[in-house]
Structure prediction request, 181 residues.
Amino acid sequence: MAERPPAALVLVVSTSAAAGAAADRTGPEIVRRLREWGFEAPEPRVTADGEPLLEALEAALADAPPDLILTTGGTGLSPDDRTPQITAGLLDYEVPGIMHALWRRGLESTPLATLGRGVAGVRGRTLVVNLPGSRGGVADGLAVLGPLLPHVLEQLGHDGLDLGRLNRERLGAGPGVHGPR
Prediction:
């Protein structure tokens, strides 16, 4: 089997952006960074929170799921913010350390990081991570995830995945899969 580059999908969770009442300010930046890192990633998909998000995640996790799904938005305290609950219900298991690291990173900039309710976990061989909807929260999330992704993808045992395509320097992962010791 020929090796393939890692694949990622970005779901922008914003009821107002899905309705055309607000602009998506985070999805394109996440896709740009994923492509810089060596992932194949289509343009972000915008979905409303709730049932539309559930349908989008179920479709993404069906037949040929990507290696990584990042959501942005829907992780706050608003009654409409249901992204964490929906995501958690689809995971085989959670990886709470990723979210702990994201919160720690966010707290360096703002105490509001404590209000994020995102989850991270695995479904099959796909890592799914909820990022905040703010540009700062996304920047923090990507800074945390970058160095982890080569090792995570290796641990998930993707057959035919060309991890050599990942730009380790841009990811911040160092020269080896595990980075500097």
User: Anything to note?
Assistant: The helical segments are 15-18, 27-37, 51-60, 83-90, 96-107, 135-155, 168-171. The first strand starts at residue 8 and ends at 13. Residues 8-160 form a domain with the Molybdenum Cofactor Biosythetic Enzyme; Chain A fold (CATH 3.40.980.10).
